[in-house]
Amino acid sequence: MGRKKVELKRIENKSSRQVTFSKRRNGLFKKARELSVLCDVQVAILVFSSCDKLYEFSSVGRNLEGPYAMELTLGDLVELEKQLHVTLTHVRDRKIQMMLESVKSLHDQEKMLKEENQLLEKQIVAMKNGKDSDHPLYHPPQQTTLSLLK
Question: Which CATH number is 19's domain given?
Answer without folding.
Answer: 3.40.1810.10
